[in-house]
Amino acid sequence: MAIHIIPVHKLSAKALKGVIEEFISRNGTDYGAIEASLETSFQQVKNKLKNGSAVLVFDDETETTNIFPADDPVLKKLEAESD
Predict the structure, then answer these.
(1) Is 44 exposed, middle or buried (0-12, 13-18, 19+ CB in 10 A)?
(2) Domains and CATH numbers, the chain
């Protein structure tokens, strides 16, 4: 399985917007006790990607993108396997 972390600064603003919007829509509308607007959710995800607390990944096998917390155990395991 080849998963790559994609630096967000390498994406155009339009591409980044599309990835974030698709990610938000995939997660549905269950935001817990307080429902966030799409714009609020978009800004939260974008800020996390920009400050490094979340990362954009591409999976070669499924040809899909996803967003993970930077400290996600799945990413740590993949990093250990590639060393």
Answers:
(1) middle
(2) 3-29+36-82 (1.10.10.610)
